[in-house]
């Protein structure tokens, strides 16, 4: 089971609303304060929690009260903030996520003003607020134990964003809403947005930076068993309650790609001989497409993360010869693969199924042959103490490159590579 999260933002998202949802879900305020103290800015602010009513609904409001007697007259730049976070001795995921969010925010602000991300100035008030909101949110998500994928990103999903409207006062005078940094962050991630008719600032730069950095995909809630919901209040009075909702659920879909490096596979402690994972299968039959387009679809799908793509010749209605196109991919790549099928082929419908597949553990080993280096794919069963090598295959492309370069038959290079591998690994002689 994976623990996953979904941000539902009917009235947008801000840093303090994110923090509110997490405290509402049980992240202890003392824990946040203790960890945030490592940043060295505890003299500059105080954290306060309040239960508030929004249109008769109760939600958790977090206040970051700035202590104005302690003036930090300069703002802070990205390198300084990154250094603060690195020195704060936070849990490793919270550190990585916090830095990623600040980087994303600095990249967006920099693009808006036409300067390098490192030169972006998080001015005094905004800086402390943003640091507490961003680092606090990352600490809370880490504390909740949201599962991650192989890139270390949390399995967090998010609804489309309401655009808001009107204007807002900023350091540089009046600004249209959404403010430029928010618009830039949405553009960077191609976020879905809509207007709910409320002309206020609903999505703040901090909220947008947290979401666009940590969220895997935007849209409807993913399938999950709902376990708990956190309610974080914003500071606006709106026609609908200004509350961000964070759904925590369990998903049986195996989100993380299976790691192909030997070390990681063995860290998973698979005592069984092979490994089960969840895979999505897309298929569609096509009888009216130029065959050249199929070759292009293959490459595009594989580039988008498909694990395998294949076609079969079939007979279709009106006695037309057609093909059945099948794509195997991980559940998290399903929508991008499906998008490619609709864009690049004439299909009008794509079927999807979720299947289990059992896979051998494998790794690529680099090997020197008299003609150059070849990668060898080695698959095995068992664990560290007992490995049963079941399959040894030289990589096709490596052999092909050497065959072309040396004007030697491909089969010869392939045979040499295999022979060299077995010479090095005498215990596995075929």
From TrEMBL:
Keywords: Lyase, Nickel. Transmembrane segments: none annotated. InterPro entries: Ni_insertion (IPR002822). Signal peptide: none annotated. GO terms for molecular function: lyase activity. Belongs to the LarC family. This is Putative nickel insertion protein. It comes from Okeanomitos corallinicola TIOX110. The gene is larC.
């Amino acid at each position: 089971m994976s623990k996953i999260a979904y941000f539902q933002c009917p009235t947008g998202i801000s840093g303090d609303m994110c923090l509110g949802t997490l405290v509402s879900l049980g992240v202890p305020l003392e824990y946040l304060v203790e960890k945030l103290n490592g940043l060295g800015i505890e003299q500059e602010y105080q954290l306060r929690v309040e239960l508030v009513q929004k249109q008769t609904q109760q939600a958790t409001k977090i206040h970051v009260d700035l202590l104005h007697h302690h003036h930090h007259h300069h703002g802070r730049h990205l390198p300084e903030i990154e250094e603060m976070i690195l020195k704060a001795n936070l849990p490793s995921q919270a550190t990585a996520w916090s830095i990623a969010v600040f980087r994303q925010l600095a990249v967006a602000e920099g693009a808006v003003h036409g300067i390098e991300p490192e030169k972006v100035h998080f001015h005094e008030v905004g800086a402390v607020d943003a640091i507490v909101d961003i680092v606090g949110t990352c600490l809370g998500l880490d504390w909740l134990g949201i599962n991650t994928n192989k890139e270390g990103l949390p399995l967090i999903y998010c609804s489309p964003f309401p655009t808001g409207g009107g204007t807002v006062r900023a350091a540089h005078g009046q600004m249209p809403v959404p403010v430029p940094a928010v618009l830039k962050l949405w553009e960077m991630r191609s976020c879905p947005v809509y207007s709910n008719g409320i002309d206020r600032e609903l999505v703040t730069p901090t909220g947008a930076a947290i979401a666009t950095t940590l969220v895997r995909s935007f849209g409807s809630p993913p399938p999950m068993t709902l376990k708990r919901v956190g309610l974080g209040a914003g500071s606006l009075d709106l026609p609908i309650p200004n509350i961000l909702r964070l759904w925590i659920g369990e998903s049986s879909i195996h989100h993380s790609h299976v790691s192909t490096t030997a070390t990681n596979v063995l860290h998973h402690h698979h005592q069984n001989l092979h490994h089960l994972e969840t895979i999505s299968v897309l298929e569609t039959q096509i009888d009216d497409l130029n065959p050249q387009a199929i070759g292009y679809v293959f490459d595009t799908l594989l580039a988008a993360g498909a694990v395998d793509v294949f076609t079969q010749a079939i007979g279709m209605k009106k006695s037309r010869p057609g093909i059945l196109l099948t794509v195997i991919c991980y559940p998290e790549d399903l929508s991008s693969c499906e998008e490619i099928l609709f864009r690049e082929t004439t299909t009008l419908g794509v079927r999807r199924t979720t299947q289990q597949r059992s896979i051998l553990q494998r790794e690529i080993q680099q090997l020197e042959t008299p003609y150059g280096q070849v990668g060898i794919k080695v698959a095995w069963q068992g664990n560290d103490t007992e490995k049963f090598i079941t399959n040894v295959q030289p990589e096709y492309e490596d052999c092909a490159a050497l065959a072309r370069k040396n004007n030697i038959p491909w089969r010869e290079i392939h045979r040499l590579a295999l022979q060299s591998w077995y010479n090095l690994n005498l215990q596995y002689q075929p």
